[in-house]
């Protein structure tokens, strides 16, 4: 009974607009008292005397190939022992979202969607060229919103896809000049390279430069942050494991050659619709060592086995190299006394094929391309680690971080939000901290374009992946024609986790196909459970 009154006292003292994390998200009757008391124990000092900071981490083309995902949610059934101690440590202190899905598996569309909290058919970003402020609306971004709320918003590395897709990193989102680092030992001549460590002492690889800059930034901010004179939103985007897979030679020790395997399913499904095939252009048409093979990109055209083994090994090495840089940054955060007041989030911007289905890269509607790692560390609440296999989406991160930091919540977008600068099209994931087994949605939605006038829309439910490739009208309508279907896919993950057997034409799956088609056509709003707006709590 005493604890209940203590919770009420904390609520009264701090007030709901003075950054009490989470409490503004729920109606009081929806909170369990034990949850309130966890909040009391964990947040009584930070919320009343200072806001939480955010360390916002990303990696490029990184599928969930880290130790924390081992088991049924690991992207490949054949793999070496994965060496990712720092990712695993962070996951062990986080809400680990084991089934998080991107909205479109390509850098610019995925990052734009996550950073605006809106889906590709709202942002109208489908390739690497569109800037959402030009082709859709003047949407407020996640770092921009923290900046508007008094945070020092700092960008390092790859957060937005740069160049045309963000008007060079969306300058309005940041408080300080952006830092990219410089490429060393990377070019278009080779698709992978191990660099002798002795060459890196004076010429570090770019991701080491980025981690060093992040550490220096934390050092410069630390005194003011601890004096409650400022708060930071520090975004650090690692460039690897994106092609070319370049890493220090010492990383090879973690992945002996005899530990590397060819993919379990190196060919496309015999029932794969033609429109679903991706021609592997990113790898086949850009890197000299691969271009010398004169590959066409036709379906089931495979690379030599030894090259596949080398590429898979190099990808693992690139991830371990990123893991080391992550460890450096996390150590600095702790040593500077900032760990207890800093939310840490991490995501990979989409998944990746390493020869599975005969595919290399992303841009498919398979699980491998759309399933990506995501985790959120909330000091005091997730310290013992919380894992959930509930279906989550990348558009959920914007409202989740805003509410976790305790700044003013953002509303759900209306059906047409082109003129609405601030809203989101996801749902907060904070309830999973208390109830990690409670469903968030009945399906996760993704999409992939083909040929400028075809869109593959896919949903992932607990058991199935269902995809329709349909005619698509771009500007100014941006709408699918559900009556003009060019291909259909249905995979049963209970019996076929590798998505090899397309059941769309099987009579025994006709009922499931009808049901899944309805979910797909109704859209994401109908799929989210208990889609409600945060409520202000009054005393």
Could you describe the 3D structure shown?
With 539 residues, this protein is of the alpha/beta class. Helix content is 28%, strand content 17%. It is globular and about 65 Å long. The N terminus and C terminus are likely disordered.
Oligomer category? single chain
Within the CATH hierarchy, at the fold level, what is the topology of the largest domain?
Alkaline Phosphatase, subunit A
Q: What percent strand? A: 15-25%
Q: Can you tell me the overall shape?
A: globular
**CA distance, first residue to last residue:** 18 Å
Number-wise, the strands total 18
Kindly report the spatial arrangement of strands forming the biggest sheet.
4-6-1-8-12-2-13
CATH architecture of the largest domain: 3-Layer(aba) Sandwich
Structural Rg: 23 Å
CATH class of the largest domain: Alpha Beta
The secondary structure category is alpha/beta
Low-confidence stretches: 1-35, 37-47, 532-539
The largest sheet, given as strand count, sense and whether it forms a barrel, is:
7 strands, mixed
CATH superfamily of the largest domain: Alkaline Phosphatase, subunit A
Number of domains: 2
Mean pLDDT figure: 91
User: What portion of residues is helical?
Assistant: 25-40%
Number of helical segments with 4 or more residues: 16
